[in-house]
Design a protein that fits this description.
two-stranded antiparallel sheet, Arc Repressor Mutant, subunit A, 11% strand, mainly alpha, single chain
């Protein structure tokens, strides 16, 4: 049986969409750009008023399988990437990367910290945290001080310049978070937190196998 031009067009379109989705799901955060997200189309609402990506569903329609899990996890990953891009853009406006800003905020809230503990709190490798602290130290925002509890270890400490930098922007960061969750009730935010942490726990179980 032959394939007409219309069918070829649908196959080509589906293949292109598949590549866009897989690229957006698997690419590194540093490679993610807003146009890649936009290629998935605007979100629409289903009969229950819930948002979904029509083009994503169209890709999987021929398979006739339940894609609720894939669809939800893809949406979560896209949300995370979008938030990461916004955080990077905001940090860049203040001359900081997202990682460096994370270090400064953690030290601002918790005080001096051993680099290993700082890495654990930020869910980073010790090597990454060391690199971030190196940059912040060169910029005069963080200093290394001896750890009184372990002479083999050092702690990261905010300098006066670092404290002044964070003190000037932390309220703006809080306001931005409120803007991002605009329209969500406290119950919905609690549910979002619960569902996100449930996925984290499930992922930990899988990683522990």
């Amino acid at each position: 049986m032959g394939v007409d031009d219309h069918q070829i067009g649908r196959i080509t379109c589906g293949l292109m969409l598949y590549r866009v989705i897989m690229k957006s799901i698997n690419m590194k955060d540093s490679e993610m750009k807003l146009p890649d997200i936009a290629q998935l189309g605007e979100a629409e609402r289903d009969e229950n008023g819930r948002l979904y990506l029509k083009r994503f569903r169209e890709l999987f329609d021929p398979l006739q399988v339940d894609i609720s899990a894939v669809e939800a996890l893809a949406a979560l990953r896209l949300a995370g990437r979008s938030l990461h891009l916004l955080q990077e853009r905001w940090g860049a406006a203040h001359g900081l990367s997202e990682g460096r800003m994370g270090v400064l905020f953690r030290l601002f809230r918790c005080g001096d910290m051993p680099l290993g503990e700082l890495a654990d709190d930020l869910v980073m490798t010790p090597r990454n945290v060391t690199g971030l602290v190196d940059h912040l130290e060169r910029d005069g925002l963080v200093s290394r001080v001896p750890d009184p509890e372990d002479r083999r270890s050092v702690r990261a400490r905010l300098t006066e310049a670092g404290r002044a930098r964070i003190d000037a922007i932390w309220k703006e960061g809080l306001e931005r978070q409120f803007t991002l969750v605009e329209g969500l009730s406290k119950d919905e935010l609690a549910q979002l937190r619960h569902l996100s942490l449930t996925l984290v726990e499930n992922a930990r179980k899988e990683l522990g196998k």
